[in-house]
Amino acid sequence: MPDLVTTAKGIAGGFPLAAVTGRAEIMDAVQPGGIGGTFGGNPVSTAAALATLEAIENEGLIAEAQRVERALQARIGDWAERFPVVGDVRGKGAMWGVELVVPGTRRPNPEALTGILRHATSSGVIVLDSGSWDSVLRIMPSVVISEELIDDAASVIEVALAALSA
């Protein structure tokens, strides 16, 4: 159980809001107003967050994110072993990162990322770049994506990975 959890971005469905949640003894120890920031307390954003949290619960989106996590792990979890250009594959829920490296090293490989992004986009797969060295392929599908679409997208990306690893 964490002492504190910070939440932002998607908590309010696109409206600006952030939250800090924690154990009572920690939250109560701070002076009034001591935990807060730019995106705290807006009534419209708060209403949007309540609606978002209600949708997450009512539509079973936590379970869906866990399903997507299992599907992605099964489909792409071995890429670091299969493709020398992949240094690491990591993720939680529906947000995954594929660290691209110069084969045989741990050095970031932003050129590989550029090639994969170009190939994926031209093949109809939308993925993002990420990482401090622009060398992480970010895979963030919807939590209601089908396993078939995960497989299709992974297959497209694997074509580029195989070409870079040859």
Description:
The protein has 166 residues and is α+β, with helices and mostly antiparallel strands. The chain has two domains: 4-58, no CATH class; 61-165, Aspartate Aminotransferase, domain 1. The protein is 43% helix and 17% strand. It contains six helices and six strands. The chain has helices at residues 24-27, 43-58, 61-76, 79-82, 110-122, 147-165, and strands spanning 4-7, 19-22, 86-92, 95-100, 128-130, 136-139. A four-stranded antiparallel β-sheet has the order 3-4-6-5. Strands 1-2 form a two-stranded antiparallel ribbon. Strand 3 and strand 4 (95-100) form a beta hairpin. Helix 5 (110-122) crosses helix 6. It is elongated. The N and C termini lie far apart (45 Å).
Compact summary:
By secondary structure, the protein is an alpha+beta fold. Helix content is 43%, strand content 17%.
